[in-house]
Each structure stands twice: as structure tokens, then as C-alpha cells.
Amino acid sequence: MFTSSPPPLIGVNFPYPRTDTSEVGDMDVLQSFLFVPADSSRKMTSARNLHPDAFIYDLEDAVPIANKHEARHLLTGELNSFINPGPKIFIRVNGFGSTFFGDDLRAVVRREVSGIVLPKCNDASQIAQVHQELSRLENQMSMPEGSVKIITILEGAKGVSLAGEIARSSSRIIALFFGAEDFCADMGITRSKDGDEIGVARSLVALAAKSERLEAIDGPFTDFHDRVGLFEETRRVKKMGFTGKALIHPNQIETVHQAMAPSDEEIALAHEIVSAFENSGGGVTAVRGKMIDEPVVVQARKVLKQNARERKA
Ligand code: COA
Ligand code: MG
Question: Which ligand minimizes its atom distance to the CA of 34?
Fold first, then answer.
């Protein structure tokens, strides 16, 4: 299952950023991103047998200051030894302004790594600088320029309010990630289970992402024993336009995939809508007492396509 032979170059050929507006919500996306603390050999070893869509090896907040150097060293060793061939690999580096950032970036630009996850993004000009530094490191490593992607975490009031500008700051950005815990701390608000207090911020991040044809990833649900709560939260953010969810524990992977998949009811309704529209010769019609026209049919077809993809996977 695992290989130590040279890995394929996986940083390129992402289905996104999109080039065509009709593609939003219409293509394969990464739904589950499992954080793995890079100072834990035990968890990195567990990860070898796990199958989320992507890993985010963490050098930032899961790692105490005293372990930063050791974590980078352990992660490099792990990437040298084993590559789990399925999930894509991302690495959350320490923040741009931190003393660890330069060493983190030098350690992560390598062919197995699809991209970096950049925390606490509050400033588009900093991302432009990170973009340049990645280009320099890619050249040094004889990697194609632009192959290392960026997922930006918007987790401060400033970052969220500048979401659109940040989304446009680098062609490497493939997704915006909403970080609720830091956002609440920055705002001085306490996070509740239903998430009313973060609804607007979440929506702004999803909107900015979709407006730039990027994916939107919601941060983790921290109560990792509560699968019902995770399912409900994932469904809620899916309705807001999020296509991915970060995870902290392996037992969350399956729940997120179930919640991101269209429900039986959504699939049945989508079939009815598409066939009613086709039977009407492409004009306006009605299903279950509601008017059906072109955009409703476009969305119904997306639901059926997503269902077909997930049944194949
Ligand atoms: N990645 C990979 N494997 C993990 C894992 C993770 N995030 N979390 C748990 N596991 C593995 C453990 O190694 C263990 O396997 P093992 O017995 O073969 O070693 C198994 O899953 C069960 O772990 P469990 O005992 O239930 O978890 P825990 O109490 O040791 O740890 C957490 C709980 C929350 C501390 C842990 O899941 C974790 O560190 N999560 C990630 C935290 C993080 O990265 N935060 C930053 C982003 S918000
Ligand atoms: Mg954070």
C-alpha cells in the first residue's frame, strides 16, 4: 500500500482554481482534511493507514513552541519514509511573521507536498511575498513554478473582512479556510454549538471563495466523540457553500463524507426536477407545487453529478 519510490508530482493539475463559472460545485473536490500534529510520531504512524481526502500535517498551533524544531524534523523524516498514496498532503506552517516561518517553508517545498496551509491571513501583500518565496524554492528544487498551492486560513476579524482581496492575492490559492476558534477569540465571542455567532463570517468566506472559483473549507468540529453534532454542522456549512471540512480525529472522516453527500431525498427531488424539465421541452414547469426553471435544473443536475461521482468512488 505504501511506497518509498519517487512519488508522482501531485501539486499540479488540481481541478481548481476554476476557470469556468459553470464548474463551481460541479467537479471533484477534496472534502475531508485531517490535521495530524507533526510532533507526534504516533499520530503520523496512524495516518499511514487512514484515508481522508487530504492530510494537513501541523507545524503551527498543535505544536508547542518547545517542539517546533523537533516537529519539522519528524515531519521531514516521515515524508522521506512513507507516502500514503491516496490522500493529498498539505502542511500548515507557522504564521508569516513568526520566527519559524522561513525554516518551515524551506522544509515543505518538495514534490510530495501539494501545498501549504497558511494560518492567520490578514494581509494580501504578505501572501504575495509568500508566493514569491515559494517560486524561489521551487526553482531551487527544480519543481515547476506554481506547483505548491496555498490554502489560506481566514481566522481574524481583519482576514475575514478582507476575504475577497486575500482570495485574489495569489494564483496559487486553491481554497479559503474559515478558522472559527481564532475568529471567536479575536472577536471576543464564545463559540456555541449552533454557531449563530459565526454565521455571517462563515458566509463571507464561502462567498469570497466561490466568487474567485475557489473551494471553501470549514474548520474542525472539536467534540470528536459527537458524530451527530459533526454531521449536523457539516450539513449546515454545506448549505452555505462549503465543500470541505477540516478534521482533528480519524473517527470524523466517514461522518464528513456522509454529510457532504447528497441525501436520498435531495437525489429523488433532483431526478424529478430534471425529468419534469426535460418532459416539458425545456420550458418553465412545476414539481411538488413549486416552479422549476433553468437555475433550479442546473443545481439539480449538479446534485445528480455529485451523487454519480460518489457512487463511483
Ligand atoms: N491524526 C492521525 N491519527 C490520529 C489523530 C490524528 N489527528 N488523532 C488520533 N489519532 C490516532 C491515535 O494515534 C490513535 O491510534 P493509535 O492508538 O494506533 O496510536 C487513535 O487515533 C485513537 O486516538 P485517541 O486515543 O482517540 O485520541 P487521543 O485522545 O490520543 O487524541 C486529540 C485526541 C484530539 C488530541 C487528537 O485526535 C489530535 O491530536 N488531533 C489533532 C489536533 C490538531 O492537529 N489540532 C490542530 C488543528 S485544530
Ligand atoms: Mg488557528
Answer: 1
**Nearest C-alpha to atom 18 of ligand 1 is from which residue?**
46
Cell numbers for 91, please give them: 502542511
Q: Give the list of residues 6+ apart from residue 284 with CB closer than 8 angstroms, or none.
A: 291, 292, 293
**Alpha-carbon gap, residue 272 to 301, rounded angstroms:** 11
Question: pLDDT digit string (tens) for 54-90?
Answer: 999 999 999 999 999 999 999 999 999 987 889 999 9
Index of the ligand 1 atom closest to the CA of residue 35: 44
> Among candidates 54, 58, 114, 109, which has minimal Cα distance to 86?
54
Domains identified in the chain and CATH numbers: 26-260 (3.20.20.60), 265-312 (no CATH)
Whether residue 36 has its Cβ less than 6 Å from ligand 1: yes
Q: How far is the CA of 9 from the centre of ligand 2 (A)?
A: 29
C-alpha–C-alpha distance, residues 109 and 114, integer Å: 9
Is 0.85 topped by the overall pTM?
A: yes
Which mutation among 43, 60, 78, 218 tests ligand 1's pocket best, with the greatest number of atoms within 8 A of CB?
43
Give the count of beta carbons closer than 10 Å to the beta carbon of residue 218.
Answer: 28
Distances in whole angstroms, Cα of residue 141 to Cα of each of 7, 56, 73: 14, 22, 19
| Residues 290-299 pLDDT 10s | 999 999 999 9
| Amino acid at residue number 248 | I
